[in-house]
Amino acid sequence: MRGNRFFKQMLVMLFFVTFISICFTAGYYIIQLLPLRLTDYVRYLATIVTSIAIMILIGHLIHAIHHNKRVNIYLEIIDALRKIANGDYNVQLDFNFMDKRNEMTDIINHFNHMAKQLKQMEEMRQEFISNVSHEIQSPLTSIVGFAQALQFNKLTTEERNHYLHIIETESRRLSKLSDNLLKLTSLESEHHPFERTDFRLDQQIRTIILACEPAWLEKELELDITLDKIPIVADQDLMSQVWTNLIHNSIKFTRQRGKITILLQQVDDLASITISDNGIGISETDQFHIFERFYKADLARERSKSGSGLGLSIVKRIIEMHEGTISVNSELEKGTTFTILLPIS
């Protein structure tokens, strides 16, 4: 470190010596070119004065160039800020022309990072609005269409009941979408009630499995359940939403007479929960996006199984609030496994 500093000092000294020599040489030749009869002493003084004048002039030129660069970058920053204020986040400042890193390059670097983050947030906002609009428009179209169909007097009782059932289903779908949106927004805010209590995690999961009994009995699913007795400190209501969502998904996407395995065990100071099924699975590409808002990996599945795409986003958020992790491992036509790790206390 000390050697590098000495080397830099030597380079600076060499630069100034060379600069002074060049200025003195230029001053000498200028005086020599003048058609004046001067004594050697006067010529020597004139050379020194001329050399100093040349150094001052060059110094002013360098300062002026550097000042203009700083003025230009200030103007660019002001212009970029004006664009951002008007909603245009596609701005990036260039500081490659600067010779070295300084306070100005740091400001520009942070400004570019800010603009990039704002652009990403705006893209996410637009995508979110687009997804919400699409999800709302689909059931509304069905409700309006079948409500108009009910106005025909020649409908049979069976047809009328069928249309009413569709309207009811789509209305419930809208209600669930609205509820999930409010829930996710609340979870992401700093004001969501979060009350940790002591409870038995195995008992909670067992209760939810029993609550889902009609669904897995209807599909004649085989359940392999191993739940170690694990007390945990967490928000009981929020964790209940996690297991309800994951178990319902396993039942929904497992075929008739399939199998679901639920394992709860303690690993060091963590509770490890795996929920596996031998259902239709998730593609490798979809696994990277499965926890994103409104993302649906079941685009090719029937409409009756299509959700809002918010359930797993809510699950992930709740687990993150508890400082835990969730991961997915799946293969098409072979099944899916969700693994959750939660701090016990």
Write up this protein.
The protein has 345 residues and is α+β, with helices and mostly antiparallel strands. β6 and β7 form a beta hairpin. α3 runs antiparallel to α4. About 2% of the residues have low confidence.
The pLDDT mean sits at 78
> β content, as a range?
5-15%
Main beta-sheet annotation: 5 strands, mixed
| Major β-sheet strand ordering | 2-4-5-7-6
Shape: elongated
Low-confidence stretches: 298-305
The share of residues in helices is 55-70%
Total strand count, please?
Answer: 7
Cα-atom radius of gyration: 36 Å
Fold topology:
Blueprint lengths: L1 H32 L6 H46 L17 H47 L7 H32 L8 E4 H11 L1 H6 L3 E6 L3 E4 L1 H17 L6 E9 L2 E8 L6 H4 L23 H11 L3 E7 L3 E9 L2
Parallel strand pairs: 2-4
Antiparallel strand pairs: 1-3, 4-5, 5-7, 6-7
Could you provide a short overview of the structure?
The chain has helices at residues 2-33, 40-85, 103-149, 157-188, 201-211, 213-218, 236-252, 284-287, 311-321, and strands spanning 197-200, 222-227, 231-234, 259-267, 270-277, 325-331, 335-343.
Tag the structure with descriptive keywords.
5-stranded mixed beta sheet; single chain; alpha+beta; about 350 residues; two-stranded antiparallel ribbon; elongated
